[in-house]
């Protein structure tokens, strides 16, 4: 049986948490009623992230203790996710306070909670996503009749893939002239590509590099080439709105920890790559070969700037991908107050919210 059929049930299971989050009440989404009061530092902060190179600031911040040092007496609890929609469910359900997440799921969470539940508080990573394919596929039209994978329905790469296919007027479906899309966890896609069940995949790092270096794939599209200046937000940092309003000092502490992680990675590049590789080994059970690691890091930029000016286009892409029905109003989506306070205190350049910090 081909992978597209084997994964049909899996795709439905992955949709359930997202749909559950969509139907949440205000309380379920972590939107409490009543006036907001600054309660000072939180007793605990629950932080989510992925075991991906594109989440390197989170991995380094946790492993090197940068977050814990800045948080002081605030307890840090972490949770690892494999894709954005699952993390969105945790955020909207109130079981997660802050998360490193893809730009697509961040926009979707904001839209589905009527602009109430989350705010983008910082950037993390720009770049680091590619559409890779078997060597025989050299152009878009050759994807017709082929199985193309993305990590999870509605995640950042899934949206990017569907927008790209739409722009090239490539139909999606199971016909011989259509592109057959499927969603699976990255390790499953890697195995399916090597087995011939998947012929192309739009993936974040290090998975794009793994398919290129270890499985013989070729790059069909580097997402950098689709954006002005080659910059787009692969990973941003979001916070539950209520948590941000009640504990801005805790959010600022995490921002200091993230900046410390980025500074350390910039001045200790080899050590940073080794640390991230060690974390990936612990989580996935396998470390990356050195060529894969070097290629993956070469394709990303660690930055606290969420590149807010790209969000309107990303929101339109979510509609094109049929993740959202209408383009959401993104006013109030971004709150860079804690980050810019930290940046200013450190004598660094402030980050622009592109007008999305105003209702």
UniProtKB/TrEMBL annotation:
Alphabetized UniProt keyword annotations: Cell inner membrane, Cell membrane, Membrane, Signal, Transport
Residues annotated as signal peptide: 1-20
InterPro entries: ABC_SsuA_sub-bd (IPR010067), NrtA/CpmA_ABC-bd_dom (IPR044527)
MF term (GO), any: ATPase-coupled transmembrane transporter activity
PROSITE patterns given in the database record: PROKAR_LIPOPROTEIN
Gene Ontology CC: one annotated term: plasma membrane
SUPFAM superfamilies: Periplasmic binding protein-like II
Keyword match Membrane: yes
Pfam families: NMT1_2
Entry annotated with the keyword Membrane: yes
Location (main, coarse): membrane
Location within or outside the cell: Cell inner membrane; Periplasm
Superkingdom, natural source: Bacteria
Coiled coil: none
NCBIfam families associated with the record: SsuA_fam
PANTHER family reported in the protein's UniProt record: ALIPHATIC SULFONATES-BINDING PROTEIN-RELATED, TAURINE-BINDING PERIPLASMIC PROTEIN
Family stated for the protein in its record: Belongs to the bacterial solute-binding protein SsuA/TauA family.
Protein name stated in the entry: Sulfonate ABC transporter substrate-binding protein
């Amino acid at each position: 049986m081909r992978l597209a059929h084997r994964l049909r049930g899996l795709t439905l299971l992955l949709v359930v948490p997202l749909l559950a989050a969509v139907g949440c009440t205000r309380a379920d989404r972590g939107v409490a009623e009543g006036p907001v009061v600054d309660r000072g530092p939180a007793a605990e902060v629950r932080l989510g992230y992925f075991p991906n190179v594109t989440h390197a600031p989170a991995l380094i911040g946790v492993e090197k203790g940068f977050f814990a040092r800045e948080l002081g007496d605030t307890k840090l609890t972490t949770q690892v996710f494999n894709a954005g929609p699952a993390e969105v469910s945790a955020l909207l359900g109130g079981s997660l306070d802050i998360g490193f997440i893809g730009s697509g799921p961040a926009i979707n969470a904001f839209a589905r909670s009527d602009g109430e539940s989350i705010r983008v508080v910082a950037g993390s990573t720009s770049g680091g996503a590619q559409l890779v394919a078997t060597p025989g596929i050299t152009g878009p039209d050759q994807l017709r009749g082929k199985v193309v994978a993305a990590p999870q329905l509605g995640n950042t790469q899934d949206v990017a893939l569907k927008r790209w296919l739409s722009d090239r007027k490539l139909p999606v479906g199971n016909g011989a002239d259509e592109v057959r899309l499927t969603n699976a966890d990255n390790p499953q896609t890697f195995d399916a590509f090597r087995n011939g069940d998947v012929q192309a995949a739009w993936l974040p790092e290090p998975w794009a590099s793994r398919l290129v270096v270890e499985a013989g794939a070729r790059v069909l599209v580097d997402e950098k080439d689709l954006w002005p200046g080659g910059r787009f937000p692969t990973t941003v940092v979001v916070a539950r709105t209520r948590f941000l309003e009640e504990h801005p000092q805790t959010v600022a502490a995490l921002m200091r920890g993230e900046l410390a992680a980025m500074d350390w990675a910039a001045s200790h590049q080899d050590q940073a790559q080794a640390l991230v590789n060690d974390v990936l080994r612990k989580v996935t059970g396998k470390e990356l070969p050195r060529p894969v690691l070097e290629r993956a890091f070469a394709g990303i930029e660690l930055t606290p700037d969420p590149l807010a000016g790209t969000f309107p286009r990303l929101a339109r892409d979510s509609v094109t991908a049929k993740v959202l029905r209408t383009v959401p109003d993104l006013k109030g989506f971004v709150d860079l107050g804690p980050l810019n306070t930290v940046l200013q205190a450190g004598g660094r350049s402030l980050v622009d919210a592109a007008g999305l910090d105003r209702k």
